[in-house]
Design brief:
Elements (H helix, E strand, L loop, with lengths): L8 E11 L4 E4 L2 E5 L2 E5 L2 E4 L7 E5 L5 E5 L13 E2 L1 H8 L16 H5 L2 H6 L1 E3 L4 E3 L3 E3 L2 E3 L4 E9 L15 E9 L1 E11 H5 E3 L14 H16 L10 E9 L8 E6 L1 H16 L2 E4 L2 E13 L28 E3 L2
Parallel strand pairs: 5-14
Antiparallel strand pairs: 1-15, 1-20, 2-5, 3-4, 6-7, 8-12, 9-10, 11-15, 12-15, 13-14, 16-18, 17-18, 17-21, 19-20
Amino acid sequence: MNKVTGIKSVDFKIKASGHGVVNWNGPTTLEAIINGKRKSLNNHSLPKLRGYTNIENVKKSDGEEYERFKLAEEINFKETPLYISQNCIRYHLFKDDIINWQHPEIHNHVDAVLCSMTGLMRGYVIPKNENKRTSPLLLTDFTEQTGQGNYEQLGRSGSKEKQKTKSGGEASNALFSKTTFGDTEYEAFGSINIEQLQFISLSNAYGQEAIEITTDKEGKDLAQKIEGYIKSLDYASGNIQAEYSSNWIRKGTIFADGQKGILLNESAIDTLIKQTLSMIENLSFTQAKGYMSVDSLEVDYNDFTSAKNMFRVKDGSEVNSNKNIEYAIYFKKED
């Protein structure tokens, strides 16, 4: 069996910096030492911390174990680092594609969704008609590297007429606390899967029907729309083509069952990749009184032949920062 050759993925390493927390986890019960005693903090705001739990097991003097809340000022930010979730990053990366996912007629306009960076790169699911496209873009969480978090006890002052206690009584101030960060540095990784990017399935037999079509003419018209959209992008170059066929077969498959779909050619793939890399490289946003901005992007055009090299950009070995061969083609057309 002939192996698929060429660039199979475009991998990248991201470094970013910012200030403050942009991705909060919400109110979390912890404890603090107040007047020499452990007291519960029921109004503590905690950012997203990788692997953190607010419960710890403690042994009594007789050896019996019991659970209690951890101290807010004793978080180890190296062991449980601050992070920005990949869902948050994806939201800001594709937010220029304004799509109302709750629109009652969205299932009748999936072609408009597909002709966008969201449709081609982020992926989507339309529950009503089960149309979906798996995202070819993998992103990890952005993990903070400095581990310089702070515990802050804050007060909110106000007049007795405006402030009330839980029981309805008057109060002049209210205390609350936060785990905060100053300057931050992040590291993240990502990958664009060429096989998933280049092929848009229009058959429901494999559970990956991007949009329902009933005739070959509809398929050809959709291919022209997608081709036109890619040609409109900032990094469009070369002879961009999106080709429809009712009988695409995955190379190397045991059962040569064809499926309807659209295959993007070399120039179309390259345009979408360059557009995506540019979006990532220029990503910058503010949220929740914090901000983050991408500083650098290291790219690897990966033509791996061994599984151990699938994500080699993580250790920096044998990285191809320039595209010097063509992208791998995973599908062939049978007449």
